[in-house]
Automatic annotation (TrEMBL):
Pfam families assigned: GFO_IDH_MocA, GFO_IDH_MocA_C3
Signal peptide: none
Cited PANTHER family: BCDNA.GH03377
Protein's name according to its UniProt entry: Dehydrogenase
Domain Gfo/Idh/MocA-like oxidoreductase N-terminal intervals: 5-119
Keywords, ordered alphabetically: Oxidoreductase
Domain GFO/IDH/MocA-like oxidoreductase per the UniProt entry, residue ranges: 132-265
Keyword Ligase among UniProt keywords: no
Length: 363
């Protein structure tokens, strides 16, 4: 493809490597600059990954050739950085979560609409082949009418250097950190969430690091770390979720399953683009299903889809509206727990268009 969409990255921490490698799988994307509040880190990333320019955030945003900014900053400044990029006339693809409050998220949405730029958000794992196969099976009625879904992410948090403090801050915790993968995938397969209820707990006000070089270090816990929720999809199915930092060991966790009138789909880890899809129909043994096409997507597919959307003048699939809906849904579990009630979810986005085999070209 002759057309290239130029991309700049803000934030050169751990996840930037994955995005750089992932974006370079797509002919349409060209990473031309990276920026960080720590210029030494930006220069090191540019040298390591052969990115032409390392610069300040202000310099990156002032570059008229950059059309898409990938926002890989920490959660509490996602909205701030996205707003600055939008003000500079850039389309933005942001890491999850979309924002840490609904008010922040709404400001970002309104700014992008007013500026006429595209806004996208991680996760884009639901665009991977395995998750698109699950959606195809559901859409084609392979398990009948969906009745229920179950999602569980459980771990026992033991480590924690200074760069992991965000895991226990507002805007993270097990649900806001990992929930976007599961809920985005569920909404892709079953449509938007209509209402939620649940119970959240914060068993400890401090996390004490239990192993590694930082053993004994104390981290203030600012967010719920054990969440149990029940939610209703607008299409009629119900869902149950458990997200926790306090479960030492579980059987076959993490887990995501869809239950229908005629069978069950075992969905692969939604934190990954690929993985084994299994289906059981009518109580029969599990079947391992072959992938419909090659399974080599990684983070970057959402950015590539945004680039194609810019050229084709269409909505991008991993959209801000979808991310805002996921954020509203996640925050509603704590609200429901505090108020002892169901919470209605106001945002009701359309399901993103499915990805067909070969639809997004790769290099």
């Amino acid at each position: 493809m002759a057309t290239k969409v130029k991309v700049g990255i803000i934030g050169t921490g751990m996840i930037s490597r994955v995005y750089i490698n992932g974006c370079r799988k797509f002919d349409i994307l060209e990473i031309v600059a990276c920026a960080d509040i720590d210029m030494e880190r930006a220069r090191a990333a540019a040298q390591q990954w052969n990115i032409p320019t390392a610069c300040t955030v202000e310099e990156l945003l002032a570059d008229p050739e950059i059309q898409i900014v990938i926002n890989l900053t920490i959660p509490k400044v996602h909205a701030q950085v996205s707003l600055a990029a939008i003000a500079a006339g850039k389309s933005v693809f942001c890491e999850k979560p979309f924002a840490v409050t609904l008010e922040e998220g709404q400001r970002v949405l309104e700014a992008a609409q007013a500026k006429g730029v595209l806004l996208g958000n991680a996760p884009d794992t639901f665009l991977g082949e395995s998750h698109q196969l699950c959606r195809k099976l559901i859409d084609e009625g392979e398990i009948g009418t969906p009745i229920a879904a179950f999602a569980c992410f459980a771990m026992h948090a033991e480590g924690g250097g200074p760069n992991r403090d965000f895991m226990f801050q507002r805007g993270a915790g097990p649900l806001l950190d990992m929930g976007p993968y599961y809920l985005t995938d569920l909404i892709n397969m079953l449509g938007p969430v209509q209402r939620v209820t649940g119970t959240v707990r914060t068993p400890f006000t401090e996390h004490i690091v239990q192993r590694g070089e930082h053993q004994g270090r104390r981290i203030a816990v600012e967010t719920p770390t054990h969440i149990t929720g029940v939610f209703d999809f607008a299409g009629g199915a119900t869902g149950t979720l458990v997200f926790s930092y306090h479960m030492h060991r579980g059987h076959s966790l993490p887990r995501l399953e869809i239950y229908g009138t005629e069978g069950t789909i075992s969905v692969p880890d939604p934190n990954l683009h690929g993985g084994l899809v299994r289906m059981s129909r009518g109580g029969e043994d599990w079947q391992d299903l072959p992938q419909p096409w090659s399974n080599d997507f990684t983070r970057g597919i959402g950015v590539a889809d945004m680039a194609y959307a810019l050229l084709e003048k269409r909505p991008n699939r991993a959209s801000a509206e979808l991310a805002y809906h996921v954020l509203e849904t996640m925050l509603a579990f704590e609200q429901a727990s505090l108020n002892g009630t169901h919470v209605q979810i106001a945002s009701q986005p359309e399901r993103p268009a499915p990805v067909l085999a070969g639809q997004l070209d790769r290099s």
